Amino acid sequence: MTSKPPSIEHHLTALTQEPVEAELNLHKLWLSVWLRKWPILAFMLVASLLAILATTWMTPLYRAGATLLVQSDVAKLLAIEQADSNEALNSDYLQTEIELLKSRVLAERVVRQLDLVNHPEFAEAQQPTSEVLSNLAHRFSQLFNSVLEPAKPDGQAQKRFDKATEKLMAAITVNPRGKSQVVAVEVLLADPYAAMLAANALVDGYIAGKFEASVATSATATVWMDRRLDELRQKLQESENRLQAYRESEGLVDLQGIATITATELTLTSDRLINARRQRAEAESQYRQVELMKTSGLDGLASVPAVLSDPVIQQFKATKAQAAARVDEVSQRYGPGHPELIAAKAELDAATASLKTQVDQVVAGIERNYQLTMANEESQQAQFDSNKHQIQDLSSKEFRVRELALEVEANRALYDTFLVRLKETVATADQNNVNVEMVDRAMVPEQPVKPNKPLIVAVVALMALFLGAGTGVVKDVLNDTFSTTEAIEKKLNIPVLGIVPLVPKAQREQLAHMYSEDTDRLFTETIRTIRTKLEMANTDHHRQVIVVTSALPGEGKSVLSANLAHALANMGKVLLIDADLRKPTLAKNFALPEDRLGVTDIVEDRASLESCITTINGVDMVGAGTAVRDPLSLLASSQFTLMIEELKTRYDRIVVDSPPTQGVSDVMVLAAQADTLVFVVRSEVTPIIEVERGIAQLEQNATAVDWVILNQVDIRKAERQGYRYSSYYDYNQYGGIAAS
User: Fold this and answer.
1) What is the pLDDT of residues 221-274, one digit of tens each?
2) Of the four, 42, 115, 356, 689, which is 20 to 30 A from 440 by CA?
3) CA dihedral of 256, 257, 261, 263, whole degrees rounded to 10
4) Is the pLDDT of residue 22 over 50?
5) Cis peptide preceding 339, ω within 30 of 0
6) Are 461 and 670 in contact (CB under 8 A)?
């Protein structure tokens, strides 16, 4: 196939569509929402009505709250610790007290005090219809438990009490007020009066519990501390006696001075030993590298880091490199016997010998250094072992004395602490240690706090709005089809021949006759425009065979082939061939006999060409013919090629309705016969991946797609989305057409 000049392709692409200015992605997202505004608003309205209906069925809840001041532990009059604690301790203490206010023990105390088990809101609801079954189940459970374990008294009452306690705990919220030490205790119940009583009872019970715990602690602290103080005094005396007895038995007076001198000497020896080991390790590493590279010759030894770091070695290596470069330079200019080349090689040999001599000296120095470091390490190790042996005897005695002395000091410090604390406790036994006080008592709430009907309805409406809008946006984002010519040209890099508008359902039964009968002026103009572009591209008048295909069945290629053939018939002699031998449609679209002879009969010499041609509205047509078992072999035969060549001598244009690319390879054979290959894509239906796969299959067979036609385009919808096709026409208010 011949290629179109770039200037013509650019001109035809410009005629297909006038690209609008690039729009922001936000604008496209807004269009996705705007096109679905009425369904979104309807969904939001329904959700709001359901929210209003649901809030009317909710039980109103009232919140009653009391506040109290929770201070940190007040410093005692003779306290050992400081009177003020840091901020972190205050925060931890406040959080602990909040957890105590929410504890189950305090909730059970309130349930008993207010008799909430019998309150209607806390009582266990019993269904009248299930009362008999419940009693039977309860009796059976009692009988079963009596066999396995002893019966628990009043199990049902305990169960109701536990449920009332759990319900009260779920209704309690305790939160600090900002960064202060004021805590708000709130109870949320359907009965406002019960909420007030419960909140006040919680605070009163908490304060009473704190006071009772403080009194009990003060009463028992003195007795316990007296007993503990006697035990500590006895332990202190015993530890002192053990220390004195050990010193006398060992004859120890002062070990500190001797031990200090010996330890200092041992420390210095240890440092010297560590330094000797480090030096030996470094020397050994260099020695091993040199030994490893001795077999590699001069170049291997010179590459060892310890050798390479020597400045003289670096200088000799540089001299050798210059000499080698000089030899390479001279050898390129002169022959082997030239004096300059001989001099350059002599200079290279001298540099190599000097380098070898210096490398040998450095290697010998590395070996000597390694032997010296080994000897130094052995000397330091022997001295260290001697010092360690001297100090071991003193250390064992010193450790024992220190152990006994530490025991004495610990027992004395513990005894002194308990003695001071005992005096402090006795002096402050009558001091009030309760550091919690009521700030505001709870009052009966007048207005319910739940449900917040306006807020619920607003949130539901907003969520419905975002859900509807998000659904529309996601639907457009996940759309994997072509809807505009701009997207096709950008994605496929193939020019668009034109678009075909979406035809109303009432006219779809006569799609193949729409151009010849002129039943839809807009459809007729679009087909005529496509024909004009094809003629403009056919400047050499040698592009006779037009093969029309698509990716999938049902894309409208057969209808488009028929109408395009009728449009081309106005400008010359045209033949329409139904080459879809597996699922032919030409006979059905034009009411031809099903047993009408066609392509297969011509190729297999069962009929002549003239007997298979049918002329309708000025267009010669050849159907698929008799069904065959292997359509691909027939289309690939030389007889089919001869038939096409014969038809080229008789007709100006030959339009071939080809099978789709998916599933069969017939189109690959037909594309080889084509002068122009047109690929039909159904707007917003054909998946992009199928189009790309079909075009890729054609390109793998060295057949390029010349044009793409976007079929069944919803023009009005495209215009609402911001796309405007200038080569097509809109109906005016008088029923005519006007160029847009």
Assistant:
1) 777 777 787 888 888 888 878 877 877 776 665 555 555 666 777 788 888 878
2) 115
3) 0
4) no
5) no
6) no
- CATH 3.40.50.300 fits domain 6-15+484-732: yes
Q: Where are the alpha helices (DSSP H) in 251-338?
A: 256-293, 297-302, 305-308, 311-333
How many other C-beta atoms can be found within 10 angstroms of the C-beta atom of residue 345? 17
Distance CA 150, CA 400 (A): 61
Tokens for 403, please give them.
Answer: 């152990």
pLDDT band for position 540 (cuts 50, 70, 90): low
Backbone angles phi, psi at 78, to 5 degrees: -120, 40
β strands within 315-452, DSSP E: 436-440
Residue appearing with tokens 């005094």:
233
Q: If you average pLDDT over each of 271-285, 308-322, 351-365, which comes out highest? A: 271-285
Paired with 682 in beta bridges are 711
Q: Which of 73, 76, 429 is nearest to 219 (CA)?
A: 429
Checking if the pLDDT of 43 tops 70, the result is yes
Taking the alpha carbons at both ends of the chain, their separation in whole angstroms is 35
Query: Both tokens of residue 149?
Result: 């374990």
> Are 219 and 434 within 8 A, CB to CB?
no
pTM over 0.85: no
Task: Answer for the pair 424, 79: CB distance below 8 angstroms, yes or no.
Answer: yes
Confirm if 510 and 518 have CB atoms less than 8 A apart: no
